[in-house]
Design a protein that fits this description.
By secondary structure, this protein is α/β, with parallel strands linked by helices. The chain has 15 helices and 22 strands. The strands form four sheets. It has a six-stranded parallel β-sheet, sandwiched between helices. A six-stranded parallel β-sheet has the order 14-13-12-15-16-17, with helices on both faces.
């Protein structure tokens, strides 16, 4: 695809890096040449320095024959204006805009073709907030992802010494949980080696294990791999920016929440918008402050400021002082790999967490959801199978007959059960075996141990031109 990305910040740079590696034709626009230079040197893409909403700049970037515009600058107004210009002057087919303010999302009529002409809008801050909320609900997990509208969940946990299944082959799952359908999608061991699970594969302490199961059964599955953590009740949030405020507002009714914010004006804003959470003005790296606020009794410490170093320092300090579980928001991906698993239990890259919402608009075929795994190294795709046996390489075929590339596995299928009149009665999760046949309309969950496999999987699910 020919793609124009507006904005070379954390989100734009992460999107560009992911899409360039898949042989797309990428042009990146930013008003700051210093943001573009390192990306141009490191990635195979074109760069244009200028106003992202300018017709002249968009024309220079190739908007006349581009397939997709991804507007992810820091300014909602710039993103909206660019989409309108791209539609009106260049009739650019698909336009995606990052919108940080909820005002526009609350009024979708403003985004239709008669107004700002935005096909899809995303809010990375809200995506990250929702992701953290899921991690609070499942404190043992390293990642929590949902498919098929929440019917199915993929959870990554670190195997713990003494877990019922640890040290046993995967085929023992059926004896431990005879009434629960579960699939181990992949195991990562040691320095990141991907292991495609088979019946005789053993789970070892320290393994990162990706489990697929119906959402209602996911806690039972997790208990088989590691001991259950205590419920999260007392939470300290360091940083009251957009994510910190959104999160505190979303969890304050069900948890005991304290928010630490250094800036006086921002602290006043937080205090006016939060009803039950306690807002503290101070430095989250201040040992005395953390001690006074009972850091040793905190179930979870969340470092969510805009400064990577502060987040790493405060989360590490909180862990040393007795916080049960720590999470840090880290923009630089190299830092994420470096710190996770030490004093910091979970490190999150905001750009990597939110990129799946963008990638689903880029992926070929009917891709419903894309989740980035292992800090971008792997991906899980939810793809709708279409066609019939003649037009499709997937539909009407047993799993063992589908020519999946090595490293890609079909982990689960979500299938609609219908009445005779065609109305859907319920959605059923099918954990496929070698002889399970894929049907048209199935939501197929494909796990790719390396993102370079995604393109091959997409082509596999595409329907032939002859299908009507």
């Amino acid at each position: 695809m020919k793609i124009i990305i507006l904005g070379a910040g954390q989100v734009g740079a992460s999107v560009a890096e992911n899409l360039v590696s898949e042989a797309n034709d990428i042009t990146l626009i930013d008003s700051n040449a210093e943001h573009l230079e390192p990306l141009r040197d490191r990635l195979e893409l074109r760069t244009v320095c200028g106003n992202a909403a300018s017709p002249t700049v968009l024309r220079e970037a190739g908007a006349d024959d581009a397939d997709l515009l991804i507007a992810v600058t820091q300014s909602d107004q710039t993103n909206l204006c660019a989409c309108r210009v791209a539609k009106t002057l260049f009739n650019l087919p698909t336009r995606v805009a990052r919108l940080r303010s909820s005002d526009f999302v609350d009024h979708p009529e403003l985004l239709d073709d008669n107004n700002f002409a935005v096909d899809f809008s995303i809010c990375p801050e809200q995506i990250v907030t929702d992701y953290i909320k899921r991690l609070i609900a499942f404190p043992e997990a390293l990642q929590v992802m949902e498919f098929a509208g929440g019917v199915l969940s993929l959870i990554c946990v670190r195997a713990f010494e003494g877990g019922p299944l640890v040290g046993h082959p995967l085929k023992a799952l059926r004896y431990h949980m005879p009434n629960v359908e579960v699939r181990i999608a992949a195991i990562y061991r040691g320095d990141g080696e991907a292991i495609i699970p088979e019946g005789d594969t053993m789970i070892l302490p320290g393994d990162e294990v990706f489990c697929l199961a119906s959402t209602v059964h996911i806690r039972q599955v997790m208990r088989e791999i590691r001991r259950e953590d205590r419920a999260i009740r007392r939470i300290i949030i360091a940083g009251g920016g957009n994510i910190g405020l959104r999160l505190a507002r979303g969890i304050e009714d069900d948890h005991n929440v304290k928010v630490i914010e250094l800036d006086r004006r921002r602290a006043d804003v937080l205090a006016s918008q939060l009803h039950r959470a306690l807002v503290l003005r101070g430095d989250s790296t201040d040992e005395k402050l953390l001690e006074n606020e009972g850091i040793d009794e905190a179930d979870m410490f969340l470092a969510l400021t805009n400064d990577d170093e502060d987040n790493i320092m405060s989360a590490s300090l909180a862990k040393r002082m007795g916080a049960h579980r720590t999470l840090a928001l880290i923009n630089r991906r190299s830092y994420v790999d470096l710190v996770q698993g030490g004093p910091i239990d979970i490190a999150i890259s905001p750009a990597q967490t939110s990129i799946g919402s963008l990638l689903q608009h880029v992926r070929q075929g009917d891709v419903v959801a894309v989740h980035s795994l292992r800090r971008g190294a792997a991906e899980a795709l939810e793809i709708i199978a279409h066609g019939d046996r003649k037009a499709s390489k997937v539909v009407g075929r047993a799993i063992e007959d589908i020519p999946l590339p090595t490293g890609a596995t079909i982990g689960a299928i979500v299938r609609d059960e219908k009445r005779t009149d065609g109305k859907v009665t319920r959605r059923v999760v099918v954990m496929p075996h070698h002889d399970t046949v894929v049907e048209s309309g199935d939501h197929v969950i494909v796990f790719c141990t390396h993102k370079k496999l995604v393109r091959q999987v997409e082509k596999l699910f595409q329907v032939g031109f002859g299908f009507l």
